[in-house]
């Protein structure tokens, strides 16, 4: 948050000579009083005792006895704590009465009613002629009221949905806030410069004060978002998007506020200032996270040693968290991000160390503290509105409200178009409307505007009036209409479902599965880095921050213990404590899951005979040469950059050959079935060949008809060296490949350097015709020239 302290001159400068002499005299007096002689330390101061006695005698002579007061009134002595107690009591009574009135919570949000109560209280104080106290002071708000709300949100933050949507949240928080600030500030400056012929007070505004006002009014307020979204019970995705944006835009607001406040007096901002602003944003955001993480680790480490003093366990959580916020504010870092980081880091380790009673104390005290702070903020906002001072300008206020709505809608729609290209679960039009409509403004914007100095910003009162108007518009109009709009648009609401052990098992299984898929594909996504972080946490961090055997306990077992304890408490509270031993899962089941001392395993006789080292080495060599090689760790595969496998073509060619061989065997078997039928017709190719072989000169072929195909018969017999048996050729090729292994073959364009492709094809066709047309020799055939008769 912006600094709330004035500038001081360096120590030792600007002091006159008498001041230095007086300072030296005080040091000498202190040294003289502290360093005593050895003898003086043992002897009493008799002269001092005489002076005290004389003073008592004189006082007794001058004292006049009065009547003892039975009742006395001293309000100024207890004014401050009494008024604080009255405000807290008023806030609690108003919150209680709000929920006792039927149907009222369904119509009016709680924040609207609390602001109305603040307006009524401020009006009554004003009518009574008393001065309205400055209740919403920036010191009070930033140091006392805001930290409990942020700590409650950070400690109970749902880490899994928050981390899964972190990219979308950062886009809305950083880019969206920058867009809103510059869009609102730039257009406000343009509107203020309209009609230069008619000069008005708006023409005095410059571009930098307008941008400063835009940075104040552009940030979404986490207090207002929590107050509205918890009542409408929106689904978890939309809630974490809007609430996460309101938490993480704090760093952007701090940097823009400091940048424009610093250079508003100078009147110019250079490129170097913009570059330094970017660096300042990184320092403010990352520095706040680092400070919060350090204090969170310190809290977890301290809770490791609190097993003997359970009473002070919740105290460490509250004190360390508040110190994280103050340390971040001391260095002008983001205190909100420090609290969020501190609560998120400490929770898993602290809950493993503290007792169940301490956990209950932390939970309910944080809820109570944050609820009271939220109630006081809205009441004080109403009181501060009555207190003023205000300066109303219709043009400035109306344009501010319109620009806030327009910039929010354009920013959400434009960023969603970019975000949906990278999201698996797309944001629908209804989701975009809820995100844009849920951009509430609250007390943070009012406090930042309250910090502006009247001397540096003459339009401070007009800025405060516009900020209060925007807050009232977003809280009353948008807050009261968002619930009917959610019902009208049928937006998915939050489902109150209790987590089960089955769901936890499947969640962890899917995490491991997605991590393995990313590892196989060579794509190191967020599942890969999440698994690395979990391994590092389990191997190193848990051993240092968690005491006892809980550090070695698996996550699933820890979740089972938590579920078992919760179920037992629910049964006791519901009156089912009589059946507790039979209803609650027994510890025997836990012993079956994770036995403390596993029994020693019995020696089992080996079923396989013991192999020699030579045989084992031979098996390893076979596996090493035949199994697929594992991929390199740093290599990422893509379908566009795949390297050709030298064994792939040979393997596919071998499969094709074997397929052809199987088909050919089926064809030959089919042909043999046809060769056993009775005698073929006289004009068949078989009978013509038989006659030609018996007497070639006596055979005269008849002219074939047009529709009968002509068959040319080769004179070569089946025993001729030119005839080829395809089965023998395939077997010979397979045997040769088995002996020599798979080899890369050139493309079958040419079989040799001097042999043309047509000749090869013709010869193969001739061999195929010869083989298929010749039925082969008979079993009774003795001579080659003997005619074959079926």
From TrEMBL:
It comes from the Eukaryota. Residues 779-790 have a biased composition (Acidic residues). GO terms for biological process: regulation of intracellular pH; sodium ion import across plasma membrane. It catalyses: Li(+)(out) + H(+)(in) = Li(+)(in) + H(+)(out); Li(+)(in) + Na(+)(out) = Li(+)(out) + Na(+)(in); Na(+)(in) + H(+)(out) = Na(+)(out) + H(+)(in). Pfam families: Na_H_Exchanger (PF00999), NEXCaM_BD (PF16644). It is a multi-pass membrane protein. Residues 583-687 form the Sodium/hydrogen exchanger regulatory region domain. Belongs to the monovalent cation:proton antiporter 1 (CPA1) transporter (TC 2.A.36) family. This is Sodium/hydrogen exchanger. The gene is slc9a1a.
